[in-house]
Structure prediction request, 110 residues.
Amino acid sequence: MRTNVPLSGKDICEKLVLKCDKSTVYRTLNSLFDKNMLQRVIIDHEVKYALRDKHNANSAQEADHVHFKCMKCEKVICMTNLLVEDYTLPEGYVKKENQFLIMGTCKECQ
Ligand SMILES: [Zn+2]
Ligand SMILES: [Zn+2]
Prediction:
């Protein structure tokens, strides 16, 4: 909750002050993902997780936000103010999750 970057299971294990079993971390991530509390973004073949955000203060529904990857410094940033639209798919297509990554140059590298 305190980070503005999406984290992988490995990242979380490394950041934990209290060391716990890796499989506990992965199991927790899976269970939070199943409960729609997390969104995933796959960056360079690595699955990273981020908290889903409330649409607005009055909405109980959480939404996926856009991620941005800088092509110079390789940093990935949560763009929590940019929510992924609820696109209407053609008939017969069923959405399971959004993977929305914008590539470009970050503020610092510009
Ligand atoms: Zn950058
Ligand atoms: Zn994010």
Observations:
- The CA atoms of residues 91 and 97 lie 17 Å apart.
- The chain has a mean pLDDT of 89.
- The chain has two helices and seven strands.
